[in-house]
Structures are given as structure tokens and as C-alpha cells.
Amino acid sequence: MPTVISLINLKGGVGKTTLTVAMAEFMAAEHGLRVLVVDLDPQTNATVSLIHEQEWRRRNMRGQTVLNVFLDHLSKYRIFSPQEAIIRKVSNIQGGIEGLDLLPSSIDLIEVHDEFLRASAALPVNPLHILGGALRESLPDYDIVLIDCPPDLGLICQNGLMISNYYIIPTIPDILSTYGIPQIVNRIERLKSETGIPIQPLGLVISKFREQSNTHKAQTPLLRLNAHRDGYQRVLETVIPEGTRAAAVMDSTLNFTSLHDKYGYDNPYRHYQSLTEEVLSYVRK
Ligand SMILES: Nc1ncnc2c1ncn2[C@@H]1O[C@H](COP(=O)(O)OP(=O)(O)O)[C@@H](O)[C@H]1O
Ligand SMILES: [Mg+2]
């Protein structure tokens, strides 16, 4: 079975999706791993940076997204096949990276979330196990699954946590971005004790770090110091600096010939490369 890692933060704009996509590409292209990205965020950013927006619209119209994993349980007739919704060989590098697959998201996940909460008491299945149930047959095909979680701790997000071995909290090292971290750790600990799932914190990833910022320079060592006390295990050694290239390459209409073509030779290439190696070193133990 694969190692499943959720990337989570209640704050948007911290680089969560960018890190999910980059790590997935590095794991597949440099390590030859079979990787599935599960996009649970209704903002669909991971989805539209890994496939063309037109392709996503087509699939969204046909109901081939993660939305239908959930919708299927609200209708009497089970017609959805999660296997068919998984898109093979995605990324804007070489028209797709062998071994990198995507379960795309849908904007309508926002609405289904509320509808689902209302209906969930009457459902024949435990509403926390819907994603896991839908992916049961697909999971053995992968070495790693990366889940881009929505910026909340609602039912859809919890479905992702239920199948995760680890979670990573990407954060900008400033006061606002780190504010919700104890809440995430505590909520996941509670879910863990209520359900017996094996999820563990893999650590915090410092992202969009600014060398010139006194706040960033002051907060980073503090976050490292408080890792055990605050229950997120560690801050990963690799720090992702803020840079224009990281932001520019997420557009799936662009075409790149290689990881270097997309991410350069220095920043952010070597940072994503070292972060990926670091993450793999923890999950392979
Ligand atoms: N290292 C970085 N340096 C500069 N901009 C970045 C970096 N990582 C992400 N961004 C940009 O910041 C914005 C938020 O990033 P994103 O990955 O979408 O965050 P989240 O998923 O946490 O909302 C996007 O416009 C993205 O392109
Ligand atoms: Mg995002």
C-alpha cells in the first residue's frame, strides 16, 4: 500500500498547492515513484496546474471528479467509477510525467460539503470513509499519494486525513500563517483518538521565506524550537524561499521539457529536490 501524505493549512496562500505539485513531480520524475495527487480543495488549483483547464471543464461536466465520489453516496443509484476519474500521466512537463496521476477536484465541492453534512446521518456508510472506500482498488497502484486538502477541517478534509499516514503543514513563517497550527494539530489528534487512524505529523515546511524579513528570520527558529511542544514533530530542514519562478510555472498551458526547464537549476529546483528527498527519508523508515 502507498504512503499517503496530506498537505494541510487553514490559511490559504501559504504555498500548499505549489508544494504538493512540485513534490509529486519530483517524486515521479526523479525517484521513479508511482504518485497519485488527490485534489480535495474546491479551488482546484492543483488540478488546473496539472491538466489544462479545458480538460478539467470537460471532466467536471461529465462528473469525473472527486465531487462525484461524494455525490454518488447521496443518490440511490451508484453509477460513479472512481477509477475512471483518475487521469494518468499529468503535469505540464513533457505533456505529462509517467507515473504521475491525478484525481481532480471540482468547484462544486463547496456546496456538496453542506449537503453532505445534512444527509450524512442517514447514510448507510460512515461518511468519514467515503474517499477511502472509493480509492480502495486504486491505492495499491501507487507508492505515494499526496492530498491537497481544503483550507478547513470539514468532512471532505477529514476523509483525506482518514486515509493518511502523515500530514505536512506548509507555512509562511509569520504570525498570521502560523496562528492556526495548534488548532490543526489538536483537531487531527482528536480525529486520531476517535477513529484509531495511524496518521502522524511529518512536520512543518517553511515556505515563501524572505531573507529580508525580520519576522521570517525570528519566527523560523522559534517554530523549530516549539516543534515537540506544539505537536507537529519537526520543521523540515529545507526552507522554500519566496521567488518569482515558483509562482510563474503553475500554469498548465505552459509546456516544459524537464524539471530543470520548469524549475531552473537553482531556485526553486534545488529546494524542491531537497524537500522531496527529506520527506522521502522520513516516510521510508
Ligand atoms: N516559493 C514561492 N515563492 C513565491 N510565490 C509562491 C511560492 N510558492 C507559491 N507561490 C505563489 O503564492 C500563491 C499561493 O500559493 P499556493 O501554492 O496556491 O498556496 P495555497 O495552496 O496554500 O493557497 C500562488 O500565486 C503561488 O504561485
Ligand atoms: Mg491551494
Automatic annotation (TrEMBL):
<feature type="domain" description="AAA">
    <location>
        <begin position="3"/>
        <end position="194"/>
    </location>
</feature>
<dbReference type="InterPro" id="IPR025669">
    <property type="entry name" value="AAA_dom"/>
</dbReference>
<protein>
    <submittedName>
        <fullName>p-loop containing nucleoside triphosphate hydrolase</fullName>
    </submittedName>
</protein>
<dbReference type="GO" id="GO:0016787">
    <property type="term" value="F:hydrolase activity"/>
</dbReference>
<dbReference type="InterPro" id="IPR027417">
    <property type="entry name" value="P-loop_NTPase"/>
</dbReference>
<dbReference type="Pfam" id="PF13614">
    <property type="entry name" value="AAA_31"/>
</dbReference>
<keyword id="KW-0378">Hydrolase</keyword>
<dbReference type="InterPro" id="IPR050678">
    <property type="entry name" value="DNA_Partitioning_ATPase"/>
</dbReference>
